[in-house]
Amino acid sequence: MSRSMLSITCRMCITLCMHISIVTTLPSRVSPSFFKESSVEEREHAELLMEYQNKRGGRVKLQPMVLPQSEFDHPEKGDALYAMELALSLEKLVNEKLLNLHSVASKNDDVQLADFIESVFLNEQVEAIKKISEYVSQLRRLGKGHGTWHFDQELLGAAA
Predict the structure, then answer these.
(1) Domain range for 71
(2) How many domains does the chain divide into?
(3) Residues 92-143: pLDDT tens digits?
(4) Residue 146, annotated as binding a ligand
(5) Is 153 within a domain?
(6) 91 is in an annotated binding site
(7) What b-and-e string marks burial along 65-93, b requiring 16 or more CB atoms within 10 Å of the CB?
(8) What is the tens place of the pLDDT at every residue in 8-53?
(9) In which residues is Fe cation bound (predicted)?
């Protein structure tokens, strides 16, 4: 098992968690409940990876991280679309790191790690990417303004 790949993947989950936590501070322009749930989920993923590494005899050494961007104003796209696009790009990056980790596990005949990544993370990542991609498409069609408010209300309704 590649400890460095596991650490990178764990850091990506934590980065996504931090990014999504910051997005929850947007004042009702994007449903904070969606981003809060996503943040909690990514934190849980990072904790699962750290627990797994500890179970396998590794040690988790957390490095300092750069605080993600906290302003999401974008003159052309609007803050809701911009925040969702950033969340989507981070989800895709985490997925890429998980696929790389799975590849390293397969090359090293580490069936347990490959199974752990497949069963716990990969399907969920694909579903998250699909959902956020749909949100990005909807926000692009809606544009800025009143449509974003309706989108936010739909997210609140889906969370309830």
Answers:
(1) 3-148
(2) 1
(3) 988 998 999 999 999 999 999 999 999 999 999 999 999 999 989 988 887 7
(4) no
(5) no
(6) yes
(7) eeebeeebeeeebbbbbbbbbbbbebbee
(8) 555 555 665 555 555 544 444 556 677 777 878 888 888 898 899 8
(9) 42, 45, 91, 125
